[in-house]
Amino acid sequence: MNNDSSKLRHTQKQESTSEHQHQQQQKSEAKEFSSVEELLRHDAAELVVPAGVATKLNQSIANAPKPKTWWQQFFSRE
Questions:
Q1: What is the per-residue pLDDT for 34?
Q2: Biggest CA-to-CA distance, the chain
């Protein structure tokens, strides 16, 4: 009985170690990108933005002042 439980623990430990190594290998795989834009697109596709942050960001964008055109800036008296 003791021998069976020892074998079971050993098997479970091997499976756990193997699974952990596989996860580490997946994490350590490096990717090379040909441009910064490609890196940013990949990051955006992988990243999940929390709902609260997305809401606050959208509100900030909506409340941002609209930029003036070049001629409005040129003729403004500020």
A1: 93
A2: 92
Which of 52, 36, 56 is closest to 44 using CA atoms?
36
Which 3 state secondary structure label does DSSP give 33? coil
Total-model pTM: 0.39
* Cα 66 from Cα 77, distance rounded (Å): 18
* Residue 55: both structure tokens together: 């809401």
Count of C-beta atoms within a 10 Å radius of residue 39: 13
pLDDT tens-place string over residues 13-59: 666 666 656 566 556 678 899 999 999 999 999 989 899 999 999 99
**Structure tokens, 8:** 């079971």
| Cα 4 to Cα 20: distance, rounded to the nearest angstrom | 24
